[in-house]
Specification:
alpha+beta; five-stranded antiparallel sheet
Length: about 200
């Protein structure tokens, strides 16, 4: 990823994150030297990477070999949460309305100890991208329900969801979007409808 970025005249600041297997759920963000194994989930985030001064943030999830049914189901939930939110975004919609498309954290993640929404920062959320990595609007159930912001035309932001598969691994998906007069333009290019499988 670094090579591709530099070959296209981009710059990497703090940002290429890669995790695998049991480190994918919860989103521990630990770097390890563990060996990749068949059946491992891997996700990567090209965050705080820029081109011509404009920042991006962009997760994709991969499976080494065919993923389990539980992992596919988790991916489908994360995808549905992502696009349920994206599909209502247009100028005039509030961040509260977007955040309400995601389930309350304590309802879906009690198995990993989530008891309060403030424990879910960065799980299902969105943040503006532009000249810095985190700009308005911020969308997260922990703040947007009580402190909504109005979404405006030409805002650009990264919107991301994640989910555990109940088998010790998790998935994470993200799209970078541009708000248009009538909805959104998806700026990210890597296919997202299904988990990307790396053949063994």
């Amino acid at each position: 990823m670094f090579k591709a970025c530099y070959a296209n005249c981009g710059e990497v600041y703090s940002g290429v994150f890669c995790t695998s297997g049991p480190y994918t759920w919860p989103n521990l963000r630990h770097h390890t030297g563990r060996r990749l194994n068949p059946g491992d989930v891997i996700y990567m985030d090209v965050y705080n990477t820029s081109w011509n001064g404009y920042k991006t943030c962009y997760y994709r999830t991969f499976s080494i070999g065919e993923p389990s049914k539980a992992t596919k189901d988790a991916y489908q939930r994360a995808y549905d949460w992502l696009y349920d939110a994206i599909n209502i975004i247009k100028p005039g919609v509030t961040t509260k309305e977007v955040a309400e498309k995601w389930p309350p954290g304590p309802e879906v993640w009690s198995d990993i100890g989530v008891a309060h929404e403030d424990q879910t920062a960065g799980n299902n959320w969105a943040h503006g991208v532009g000249l810095t990595l985190y700009e308005p609007p911020m969308v997260w159930r922990g703040c947007s329900i009580d402190h909504p912001q109005v979404i405006e035309e030409d805002m650009c932001f990264a919107i991301e969801t994640q989910e555990g598969d109940g088998e010790g691994q998790g998935v994470r998906i993200e799209e970078v979007i541009h708000v248009t007069k009538t909805g959104v333009e998806i700026l990210s290019k890597w296919p997202v409808k299904e988990i990307s499988v790396i053949p063994m």
